[in-house]
Amino acid sequence: AIGFSPCPNDTFMFHALVAGEVPGLRVQPWLADIEALNLRAIGADPLPVTKLSVHALAHVRERYTVLASGAALGRGCGPLLVARPGVFDADQPLALQRLSQRRVAIPGRYTTAYLLLRALAPALTECVTMRFEAIMPAVAAGEVDAGLIIHESRFTYPAHGLVQVADLGVLWEAETGLPLPLGVIAVQRALGDSLAGALEQGIARSIAAARARPAAAWPYIRAHAQEMDEAVCRQHIALYVNDFSLALGDEGRAAIDALLARGEAAGLLPAGPSVWR
Q: What is the pTM assigned to this prediction?
């Protein structure tokens, strides 16, 4: 079994693999929200292969290593903090330092978005966890003061009457010069290097097939993104499926190592072994 999200970037990347179009590999998909995938990996019934937030990876790296393909990592793709107009307008440059006075919705306590917010906004005190698609309506309705949004929400928040308070990805890139690592495909160490290598190559081939014939993957993408506008789906895929998805390379690996190291140094993540096999 292999776990990934129903978001367009994941269904685009994994379509050929799930459809049996990658020779030598047969997989059983388990689709769930990223935080559900994180919690399953941390819990008592971990999947052998799964998409994980880099934040969650830090808590299970004794059990999992990272594959070089299938990652969500790049530039201009970071989580956003959004709010209703007027909530932060007077002090927007200092908004992250003043979150002790605000109630913030987050998409999960093991998401990379939440790790970044904690690192960049140490004054943060009150968080409300909810599924990512519920955050913008909650902010718009005044149930929370601000929301930490991920996935396609970065394209659609203006339609909810919301404004951007901070782009955490821009802040990360300015501070480190590195792309932002959001999620990775992790494999249980117990499966061994040979199978891990075959999966790595198979996922890369699946991505290459989707890029070569995107129309073939479209029905699968739409089946799992039924309420998402087609233009938003395409924007989502274009942003989150990139060359780092095919192969992390030295820069991608450095970005993951940097986020883990910064989280450890700040006391936000536990120390552990290398995530690389």
A: 0.94
